[in-house]
Amino acid sequence: MDARQVALQRLFYGALGVLSLAALGVGLAMAGASGLAFALFAVMTLGGGLMCVWERSVVRSAFCLMATFTGIAGFFVLLEADFLAMAQILIYVGGILALLLFAVMLTPPDLGERRLSRVFAALVLVGGATLWLGIEVARTARWAVHGAPLDGRAEGVSSAERIGVGFLAVDQYVVAFELAAVVLTVALVAAVYIARRRKADLEPEKGDAV
Amino acid sequence: MGLGAYVAVSAALFALGLVAILARRNVIYILMGIEMILNAANINFVAFNRFGTMQLDGQMFAIFTIILAAAEAAVALAIVLNVFNLFDSVKPSEADLLRE
Fold first, then answer.
1. What is the largest CA-CA distance in chain A?
2. Where in the sequence is the domain holding B55, given as residue range(s)?
3. 22-81 in chain A: CB under 8 A from chain B
4. ipTM of the complex, rounded to two decimals
5. Which segments of chain A have a pLDDT < 70?
6. What CATH number corresponds to the domain at position B27?
7. Same domain, A95 and A177
8. What pLDDT is attached to residue A117?
9. At what angle are helices A58-78 and B3-23 packed, to 10 degrees?
10. Which residues neighbour B72 within 8 Å (Cβ) at sequence distance 6 or greater?
11. Residue A57 has what pLDDT?
12. At residue B69, does pLDDT exceed 80?
């Protein structure tokens, strides 16, 4: 790493830190403790995503995604979806991230791949488009929103129990549940079939000799 | 925090995922970008479920998204490994067998 890259790295992380502290302060000032929690999870989610896009090394990017997934689990807790928060941590942080790290470890590193011009151009383009879309939606959309917590819900029943009943009740999601099971089985068997090594790969010397 | 804050965070995460797909020349970044985009959609599902009049439908949709994302990640890893075996590279622009 030459001096310019070190300076860029410091600049990026300094700006990220200042922005994070500012976001935490704004959250605390706007809505107290719940605002602080929301700001913390937002900083984890978006900061992790930003670092993933920024970092040169794929390994670091993959580990930055861990912050993103954990922050989203925090959002699920704030949104009273505790079962989903648990599933998020189990499946994303424990499963999909491990798969991604396998993919990282089994392919060669390429540190010269990041082009800052491309990253900035994509950031400006996509960020601008999203910002414009967000402003348009915020200007025109009218949500039918219930504000109060837990309104219309069965009190005292955990969401895990209600999700389990929803999966198995005949008039709810049982068909989709069975379909998801079939899809998962087929996909995993297919993944093993695609990724397995052929016999020819396992005996290269013999093939070379003949 | 209201619904708007969650939707804003979700939109920003979606944009970051799209940037990861567009800006980086590595198949693994495409996978990461897809995961970020799916997670952004999940935040929206759960937030609308929490603030809307639905019973539990948003959370159900989010669970099915997670299930399909897990299947997608497994198949995508297998495909990435095969692409690397075939082309000795993980750049998406070098996998051009069908282009000729």
1. 75
2. 3-91
3. 31, 34-35, 38, 42, 45-46, 49-50, 52-53, 58, 61-62, 65, 68-69, 72, 75-76, 78-81
4. 0.90
5. 1, 144-158, 199-210
6. 1.10.287.3510
7. no
8. 81
9. 160
10. A187, B34
11. 86
12. yes
